[in-house]
Every structure is written in C-alpha cells, then in structure tokens.
Amino acid sequence: MDSEIEQVPWPREWKEGPAAGHVLIGAFLLLLAAGALLGGIGAAASGGRSGAFLLPFSLLLAVIAALPAFAYLRRRDVDTWRLSLARVEPIGTRAVHVGYSRRAAGGHLAVLGLCAAALLGIVVLLPLAPPGDGRALVLWFGSVLLLGWLVWVALAVVRGRAARGWLALAPEGVVHRGWGTTTIAAWDDVASVRADTVKLNAFIVLAVPGGHARRVVHCRAVQAPEDRLRPHLAVRPRMPAVDPAVLYHALCFYHAVPQARSELGDGRAIERMRRCDFAPGPA
Q1: Which domain holds residue 110?
Q2: What is the pTM of this model?
Q3: Which pLDDT belongs to residue 280?
Q4: What pLDDT is attached to residue 283?
Q5: pLDDT at position 48, please?
Q6: Burial class for 138, CB neighbours closer than 10 Å (0-12, 13-18, 19+)
Q7: Are both 36 and 118 inside the same structural domain?
Q8: Domain check: are 41 and 90 in the same one?
Q9: Could you give the angle at the alpha carbon of 151 between the alpha carbons of 147 and 156, nearest 5°?
Q10: In this predicted model, what pLDDT tens digit does every residue of 145-181 receive, in sequence order?
C-alpha cells in the first residue's frame, strides 16, 4: 500500500472491513442455506421429489448471505485506480472521470445471475412437492415475481438503461451515474460534503437543498441504496475505482477551495489525487 494513501485519514463514520452486523447477518443466512442444502440432499438421496426445491433455495440463501460483503470498505492500491480526463455529456465539459470498479460491478451482476438461476429452480421444482400449507404457494408466487423483476433488470442491462456507473468531478459540479440514475449537482448548490453510514452501507453524501440537484432516471427497475438519500447526491465509496478515503477528501477539498476547481478540467486534479495533496482538508 502506498504510504501517501495510508496518510490520508480514514473517515471515522466508516468501518474499514466487515462490521459486526455484516458478519452476524451473513453467518445466520449461511446456516439457513446449509440446512436447506442438507434437506435437499436428503430428499434427493431418498428418491423423493418433495424436497428437491430446497437445493435451489439453499443457493438463493447462500447468495443473499454474501450480499453484506458488498458493503465492505477497504483501502485501494493506486495501481487499481481508474482516473481519466473525459468529456462528460450531462454538463458538456471535461472532468475527472472515475469509473466504477469492474470487480464490484461484475460481482453485482453475478449475484443477480445466481439469484435468477436459484429462483428458476424454485419455480420449476416447487410444484413437484406434495400439497402443503399456504407457505409453499406464497414462496412460489414470490419466486415468480422476483424472477420477473430480474428479467426486467436483465433487459434494462441489455438495452443500456442499467449500466456500470461512474463519477465525474468537473469545474462546474459533480455528476454521478449510478446503475439506474444520473444525479448532477453544481458545486455552488452543495451545502456540505460528509461521510456517513446508513443501514451498514457507507456513503459519501453531497448535501444539496431540495430541488437543486438534477436527477435523471434511466431505469426504474433498479433502486440503488444511494437513491434513497435523495435529494442529496450520494455515492457508495466502494464502487468508484479509487481509494475511498482519497475520494472523500478530494470532494471535500474541491468543495472547500473554489479557486482550485479549474484543475478538474485538466490533468492537475488527477495528479493531486495521486499525491493525496488535500491541504487544507475537510473541516
């Protein structure tokens, strides 16, 4: 790890690595998945079909158990940063472009694919089980609805409405392209930049008074955690391919020092971020 990155203070509002809540939720769901897997294997070994649906159900639980891992925050090596200078169409100027991490984005898509496979298995195999109480029927209809939603998301991805996002820091403001929305906030409209954690998810929040941030919805099928913090512009710091603490301090710096924002239109801002030179830092 680069020593300059290590010197950038980690926001006290964030937990580096897994939090206790992440571990407890994941462990509980993994136990349920193991129980369902053993039940499905036992049913298959006995030659019966009544418990066959437990096998895809155990896969679904295992995938859900892995979801808390997507909220972990860690330092990111400089070699993995994706910083570039690009023209950002929503504002029509050149800006520092930070692409979403390919690994994080690919992980989200893999989770959706595994969930779709598990739900399809439940939809196909659950009717083979003998009639029972209404819970099996509720599980079947719930699986059908979730599978339909995943198909909707898949179509949105194919059509480009849901896509791997990015963050752009421009002299005029900040643009965040999430999975299904784009949010644009002018620097002059940003009241503050803060680090926060909401429901185990870490965020960088650019506080914008209601009505001042412009929001464009590309896909209504996708509701990302940061969308719940509107009207503010929020970013999950683990998604952009840059060190989370460096990104936070860069946003604080350019919010606090208006005369330095012209750097965002050329390569100087990228060099500043790589040097971790953010004096004066956030208040």
Answers
A1: 18-71+102-158
A2: 0.81
A3: 64
A4: 41
A5: 59
A6: exposed
A7: yes
A8: no
A9: 145
A10: 888 888 888 888 888 787 788 999 999 999 999 888 8
CA-CA distance, 169 to 184, in Å (whole number)? 10
In the chain, the N- to C-terminal Cα span, in Å, equals 26
Tokens of 105: 């984005």
Cβ atoms < 10 Å from Cβ of 12: 7
Residue 12 lies in a domain: no
Residue 8 placed within a domain: no
d(CA 43, CA 46): 5
3-state secondary structure of 204: strand
**Residue 281's pLDDT is what?**
47
Weakly modelled stretches of the chain, pLDDT under 50: 281-283
Q: Which amino acid is at 187?
A: W
Instruction: Examine the fold and report which residue of 131, 158, 185 is the final residue of a domain before the chain moves on.
Output: 158
Sheet holding 83-88, edge to edge: 83-88, 93-99, 166-169, 173-177, 181-186, 214-217
